[in-house]
Amino acid sequence: MAGLTRVDYEDVSPFADLLPHNLLLDPEGGVLLLSTPRWDKPSLALGCAWTLIPRNIEVCEESVCLTLARMHESLLRSLPVGAALQAGMTILPATTAPDWEQLRQAFDAAPVVQAQQAAIHRGLPHQDGPHWSRLREVRTWLTLRLPVEPLDPAIPALLRALLALPTRSGSQLAARLTAHLTTTLTRLEGLRTGIDATLRAAGHTLTRLPGCALGTLLAQALAPLDASAPVILPDVPLAEQVLRTSAERLPSGWAFGEESAQLTAQVLSLHRAPPRTYPGLLCAPRAPQGTEPLALWDAWAGPLSLVVNVAVVDQAQEKARLRQKRTLAFLQRVNPLGDTSPEHAALRACLKSLRGLCKMGI
């Protein structure tokens, strides 16, 4: 692959090659080896995941919500350089309410309960003012990525050679790699413990995912409407197992499954931060007084995943990169016809403002 450009790589590689999820170093503990090609500059990292039941802030006072936001902020500030934390929610149409139905098992014969169950099995379509909505299932997860630093140059080559063996065994490969990754494994466990303690203190319910459950989470993310549980083999890289249907590249994203039941997936990235945020912006039907909730779960008919990635970068390197981008925007502020480019002028102003925030430590 050394002679391929990025476009060539994306065109010819199978979908599994685009996923970083590799061997399970600790199937019971849920520690995963992540390998990213980075176009001839491979990087290795260790990862883990949790499922999460967020605290219900609907019943909390505004002061409590702000306290929770500060706890989350302190958690993010405690992450080391190079670490990345990902929080995600998958919102799906639902036709069951297990907790509600369990509480009413003794009254199944009551006409009122039967009518309510019938409405739930239709998806509970309802109207709240001018807004139409329906019953939803929300799955929430959290992942942590910690790079392997310093990276022994022999490790990527060793990993590629071992994975190419026809008689490879994931447990044997994991045992050989673990000896090289002891320091990073220790740091990862310390971070996991700190995240556990902070989020539980904030009132969230966390469950660490073992290796096979992590594979199931990835498979459900790729096929959110498939209710069947996949069989995950701990000795095989997860990237080779989590895709259970065919994947076809489209100009706007990917299409999964056969044509008769094909699901199209697109990634929409946020390029500009909202002018105002508040606790529960993405996950709660609440908003500060005088404003409307974002309520993204009502904005999309099919499965919708909201993913927030927070990466801790080296401030010196990031400031140098921002200075370089600001200089290029300044040089390109005038187009070949001599007219001022409003796009580059606005970009330079934004970069200048961002650099000022970095100086203040924000």
Topology overview:
Blueprint: H1 6-12, E1 21-26, E2 31-36, E3 43-53, H2 62-77, E4 84-93, H3 98-103, H4 111-121, E5 126-128, E6 131-133, E7 136-147, H5 154-163, H6 170-178, H7 182-201, E8 205-208, H8 211-222, E9 247-250, E10 253-256, E11 263-265, E12 304-311, H9 315-331, H10 342-359
Antiparallel strand pairs: 1-2, 2-3, 3-7, 3-8, 4-7, 4-12, 5-6, 9-10, 10-11
Structural account:
By secondary structure, the protein is of the alpha+beta class. The chain folds into 2 domains: 6-94 and 135-246 and 278-312, no CATH class; 316-362. Helices cover 35% and strands 20% of the residues. The protein contains 10 helices and 12 strands. The strands form 3 sheets. Strands 1, 2, 3, 4, 7, 8 and 12 form a 7-stranded antiparallel beta sheet that branches. A 3-stranded antiparallel beta sheet has the order 9-10-11, with no helix packed on it. The chain has a two-stranded antiparallel sheet with strand order 5-6. Helix 9 (315-331) runs antiparallel to helix 10 (342-359). The protein is globular and about 70 Å long.
Strand content: 15-25%
Give the averaged pLDDT, no decimals.
Answer: 79
Helix content: 25-40%
Structural class: alpha+beta
Shape: globular
Number of helices: 10
Q: Largest beta sheet, briefly?
A: 7 strands, antiparallel
Number of E-type strands: 12
Total number of distinct structural domains: 2
Order of helices and strands: HEEEHEHHEEEHHHEHEEEEHH
Low-confidence stretches: 1-10
Fill in the keyword field for this structure.
362 residues; alpha+beta; 2 domains; three-stranded antiparallel sheet; 12 strands; 35% helix; 20% strand; globular; disordered N terminus
